[in-house]
Amino acid sequence: MNRELFISDYHRLSRLVGSEELPERLADYVQQMPFNPDHSLAEKTVNKDVVIGLCCQHFKVSLIDMIIPSRKEGIRLIRQMTIYLLETRTRMNQQAIADLFHRDRSTIASTKRRIQDLMDTDLAIREEIALLNAQL
Questions:
Q1: Residue 28: helix, strand or coil by DSSP?
Q2: What pLDDT was estimated at residue 84?
Q3: Which one, 3, 36, 133, 135, has the greatest CB density within 10 A?
Q4: Is residue 66 scored above 80 in pLDDT?
Q5: Which are the contacts of 38, defined by CB distance < 8 A and separation ≥ 6?
Q6: Do 97 and 115 fall within a single domain?
Q7: Once rounded to an integer, what is the mean pLDDT over residues 127-136?
Q8: Domain containing 114: what range?
Q9: Judgement on whether residues 88 and 30 belong to the same structural domain of the protein
């Protein structure tokens, strides 16, 4: 199940129905979704160079700018979104991504959680990730 699509449909559904109807409607919605056990593997077919190149081109930054230990908000967010896409759309494990960005594996794990949380609350981030995902 596509997480972004589910979240947007959930928010739309929660506005349309009352809170007492929401669990039942949500259960109906989930049952209607097609189940594909290989879906997560099918999406993870993008090469890391494609993801990095797309992010660099889209955000107009170089790979060096993303790798250096800058804590500027703009670069940090771009790096985090790139790490999120590498984690979700490639077959790279967290350690390989950490090595690429000269970070710890735990930093990669927390970065993924942070972007997922931001996607739940920030429409701009959600749209940016959806746009990049569509281009992959």
A1: helix
A2: 95
A3: 133
A4: yes
A5: none
A6: yes
A7: 90
A8: 44-135
A9: no
Match 């690429």 to its residue by tokens.
Answer: 100
HEC states along 33-102? CCCCCCHHHHHCCCCHHHHHHHHHHHHCCCHHHHHCCCCCHHHHHHHHHHHHHHHHHCCCCHHHHHHHHC
Q: Are residues 57 and 102 in the same domain?
A: yes
The fraction of the chain above a pLDDT of 90, given in percent, is 51
Q: Tell me, what CATH number does 76's domain have?
A: 1.10.1750.10
Domain total in the chain: 2
Per-residue model confidence as pLDDT tens digits over 80-108: 999 999 999 998 999 999 999 999 999 99
pLDDT the model gives residue 37? 47
Q: What angle do CA 65, 66, 67 make, to 5 degrees?
A: 95
Residues 20 and 59 in one domain: no
Q: How many residues does the chain have?
A: 136
pLDDT in tens, 28-41: 666 665 554 444 44
Q: Is residue 118 domain-shared with residue 78, that is, in the same domain?
A: yes
The reported pLDDT for the residue numbered 108 is 95
Cα–Cα distance for residue pair 70/94, rounded to 1 Å: 20
